[in-house]
Amino acid sequence: MEGIEVKVQKRAFPSKGRVRVHTSLLADLALETGAHVEVDGGSGKALTLGAFADSMVAEGVVRMDPEDMKKLGVEEGAVVVVRRAKGITEKVKKGTKETTEKVTEGAKDVGGKVAKGAGSAAESVKKGAGSAAESVKKGASSAATTVKKTVSPKDKEL
């Protein structure tokens, strides 16, 4: 989401959670006074604050509470980006999309692992069955040889 670059000034009357901006800035963002804006200091930190129009604030400037400036990690005179804050619906949609993508990616990964595991299991069963068959053959042959050796000539006549 694009925004508008402005310089930060300390507010004359501190008020946490609020910024004062020139009326034209709110008009440019298509917002009404009191609406929430996101102030981005560029360091990966952003604050969502209530924006109030003030014709006494110079254009291209945002006046912030010193504590809010500290949270944002900016000093007076720093350039920040002010943009329309995302509403709850936008945040939920974004979160839902990200979750769906992660679940889809995970399902594909699991599917591949299951297929690989099934193939490996089938190969193991095949080897095991072949080995068992060979053992049965050897056992049967050995049993037949033993029976042959232990049968006396008299038994053969019967």
Quick tags:
single chain; alpha/beta; Barwin-like endoglucanases
Overview of this protein structure:
- This protein is an alpha/beta fold.
- The protein folds into two domains: 4-85, Barwin-like endoglucanases, CATH 2.40.40; 90-136.
- Helix content is 51%, strand content 22%.
- It has four helices and six strands, in the order ββαβββαβαα.
- It has a six-stranded mixed beta barrel with strand order 1-5-2-4-3-6.
- Strand 3 (36-40) and strand 4 (46-53) form a beta hairpin.
- The longest helix is centred in the last third of the chain and has 63 residues, at 88-150.
- The radius of gyration is 39 Å and the shape is rod-shaped.
- The N and C termini lie far apart (100 Å).
- The model has no long low-confidence stretch (mean pLDDT 81).
Brief rundown of the structure:
This protein has 4 helices and 6 strands; from the N terminus they run ββαβββαβαα.
Number of strands: 6
Query: Structural class from helices and strands?
Result: alpha/beta
The helix fraction, in percent, is 40-55%
Number of domains: 2
Order of helices and strands: EEHEEEHEHH
Radius of gyration: 39 Å
Overall outline? rod-shaped
Say what the CATH topology of the largest domain is: Barwin-like endoglucanases
- The CATH class of the largest domain: Mainly Beta
Task: Please state roughly what percent of the residues sit in beta strands, choosing from under 5%, 5-15%, 15-25%, 25-35%, 35-45% or over 45%.
Answer: 15-25%
The name of the CATH architecture of the largest domain is: Beta Barrel
